[in-house]
Amino acid sequence: MPLVAQSHYQPPFYLFNGHLQTIVPSLWRKVPDVTYQRERLELPDGDFLNLDWSRLPPRRPTDGLVIVSHGLEGDAQRPYMRGMVRALNHAGLDALAWNYRSCGGEMNRLLRSYHLGDTGDLDTVIRHALSTGRYRRIYLTGFSAGGNVTLKYLGENAARVPAEVKRAAVFSVPTDLRASSIHIARPQNQVYLRRFLKSLRQKIRDKAALMPGQVEVEGLELLRDFPQFDDKYTAPMHGFASADAYYAHASSGQYLAGIRIPTLLVNAQNDPFLPPSCYPREVAAASEFVFLETPTAGGHVGFPQGDGEYYSERRAVEFLTAEVPA
């Protein structure tokens, strides 16, 4: 019964609610001591991914790599990504922070972009890393949208997952996308929703400029929530009949029972993004592999501790490097 009975996370006293634990790390955290080497990975469909590697120096070779997946409209430079990469390097592991299509500072080439159920690109990144011949152990970690993609990848077809993929740890994951899209539209969450929609609208404008006549921008400013945006853009651009059809396909909660490697899911109880359906306690209780930890605090992609390293980073290192489930 992999329910983590007690979480050891305690936030700093001055970050006393989920909104502060979400916003302060996002806006003010700095992680300067991470250096990436970028690789352009060309894809079979004519598109590309930008991969940001952080490898240990030659005097400290490792056969272990952690692939880190970012959140919605994020990239490898976000503080939570850089903080995780730094912690993994300190633990003796190489890290690969990959940027989704249209993320990482460049618009992708195709009409399609990325979506929260697209596991094909993650599989491509994993197999590319293995093709280097450097790694015998692959670990996965992800935040929010990246956590959803990771969980779906592991559970939708466990036989597809390479044997070198040993463990995973994900944080702040909206495992029920339809319920989450409604939850984030609540009045107290409008600050987050507006920020996401501003970024998504700009990408639609950029894509329309690159592809005249292929992207409709009329009415773009009138879209006020995720279901409206996803119904007009995300769903049709990626082959779904509607936003609801997209959510039904992409939500990772339905795939958790299929996971066959030790996987830690940490969702804070005060996460402003997550509705009750994103705390899959019954699934975890029945699983040999899914470890659910629900600390009372942490916010969304937060978990600050006040000493430079965050709880999510310590917990990921602890779980991924453990010899037995914890």
TrEMBL record:
SUPFAM superfamilies: alpha/beta-Hydrolases. GO terms for molecular function: hydrolase activity. Residues 65-306 form the AB hydrolase-1 domain. The keyword Transcription regulation does not apply. Signal peptide: none annotated. Keywords: Hydrolase. It holds the Pfam family Abhydrolase_1. Belongs to the AB hydrolase superfamily. AB hydrolase 4 family. PANTHER family: ABHYDROLASE DOMAIN-CONTAINING PROTEIN, ESTERASE YHET-RELATED. This is Alpha/beta fold hydrolase. The lineage of its organism: Bacteria, Pseudomonadati, Bacteroidota, Cytophagia, Cytophagales.
